[in-house]
Specification:
Layout: H1 23-41, H2 53-67
C-alpha cells in the first residue's frame, strides 16, 4: 500500500497573506534608485546657477550622511 504524499496548497490559509516576489522585482528598483542617486551626486558635482537653496542644502545633507 503506497503512502500518501502531502502536497502544498497554492492558496494561502485564511487570515494570512502570502507575497512572493521574484528576485528582480526587488533588485531592479534598488539599482534604479542607486543609478539616479549617482547621477545627482555625479563625478562633476556641477552646481546650478539658479534654484532653491533648500534643495541644495538637502542634497548636501544626504551626501554627508552617505559619506559617513
Amino acid at each position: 500500500m503506497p503512502a500518501r504524499t502531502h502536497t502544498r496548497s497554492t492558496t494561502p490559509a485564511p487570515g494570512s497573506v502570502e507575497v512572493r516576489l521574484p528576485w528582480w522585482a526587488v533588485v531592479l528598483p534598488a539599482l534604479a534608485f542607486a543609478a539616479l542617486l549617482l547621477l545627482i551626486v555625479g563625478p562633476g558635482e556641477a552646481r546650478a546657477s539658479t534654484g532653491d537653496p533648500a534643495l541644495g542644502r538637502l542634497l548636501a545633507q544626504i551626501m554627508d550622511l552617505l559619506s559617513r
